[in-house]
UniProtKB/TrEMBL annotation:
Residues 1-24 form the signal peptide. It catalyses: S-ubiquitinyl-[E2 ubiquitin-conjugating enzyme]-L-cysteine + [acceptor protein]-L-lysine = [E2 ubiquitin-conjugating enzyme]-L-cysteine + N(6)-ubiquitinyl-[acceptor protein]-L-lysine. It comes from the Eukaryota. Coiled coil: none annotated. This is RING-type E3 ubiquitin transferase. Its EC number is 2.3.2.27. Pathway: Protein modification; protein ubiquitination. One of its GO terms (cellular component) is membrane. One of its GO terms (molecular function) is zinc ion binding. Belongs to the RING-type zinc finger family. ATL subfamily. InterPro entries: ATL20-22-like, WAK_GUB. Keywords: Membrane, Metal-binding, Signal, Transferase, Transmembrane, Transmembrane helix, Ubl conjugation pathway, Zinc, Zinc-finger. Residues 35-98 form the Wall-associated receptor kinase galacturonan-binding domain. It comes from Aegilops tauschii subsp. strangulata.
Length: 219
């Protein structure tokens, strides 16, 4: 092939590549016009593909990734936990943080976390879930280390003389009163993925907060 033919071939390849980029950019622009990102409030999590609002066309999101707005709250309807408030969406890590709403059918969300498999076809619990122990005490106390021992979750019992706590594997026995007894060990509780450089989850968020990870491909 002489040099002139080589230049012509190279020019054609460049034109084809340019046209493919233009076509891809046009498709992206059309998608963004049809499926723009949303927020339920100014500081709420961004809602974009693979998530979509319930008011968006189904093609704007992946199956089972529908969210909705209730006032300023971003809501996920989970088949086990029911309606949950979405506090964060980490698209890079394919993780969302949700907190179950206080509904009549869910007066004790801790019970759900302990006794129920939270995985669905779309979401699964992260492998880095915290292993905890359910502890029963005859009197209530305020944990010294509120990042290793969380509670009390008195809704687990109708007996007002029983107080229930979740203790992580890193908790020290000396931090528990002597009247406390381990009831169930090896309970896997999904962690709350917080922005460790800016915010730390509250004890309430740690005991009822749920982190679910999307099954399959990345966002």
């Amino acid at each position: 092939m002489d040099f002139s033919k080589f230049l012509v071939t190279l020019l054609l390849v460049c034109l084809l590549t340019y046209e493919s980029y233009v076509e891809a950019a046009s498709v992206d622009q059309d998608f963004l016009r049809t499926c723009p990102s949303h927020r339920c409030n100014k500081h709420g999590p961004e809602i974009r593909f693979p998530f979509r609002l319930s008011t968006d066309p189904p093609s704007c999101g992946a199956q089972g990734m529908q969210l909705s707005c209730s006032g300023d709250d971003t809501i996920l309807d989970h088949h086990v936990l029911g309606s949950c408030r979405v506090t964060e969406i980490y698209y890079r890590h394919r993780v969302i943080n949700v907190i179950p709403l206080a509904e009549p059918s869910m007066q004790c969300p801790v019970q759900k976390l302990i006794s129920t498999n939270l995985a669905t076809d779309v979401y699964k619990q992260p492998q880095s879930s915290q292993v905890t122990t359910l502890v029963r005490c005859s009197r209530g106390f305020t944990p010294v280390d509120q990042y290793s021992i969380v509670g009390p979750a008195s809704c687990l019992s109708n007996n007002t003389r029983q107080f229930w706590y979740l203790a992580s594997a890193s908790a020290y026995m000396s931090d528990l009163p002597r009247d406390c007894m381990a009831i169930s060990k090896g309970i896997s509780i999904p962690f709350t993925m917080a922005d460790s450089f800016h915010r730390t989850p509250s004890p309430e968020q740690r005991i009822v907060g749920v982190t679910v990870r999307r099954e399959g491909g990345g966002y």
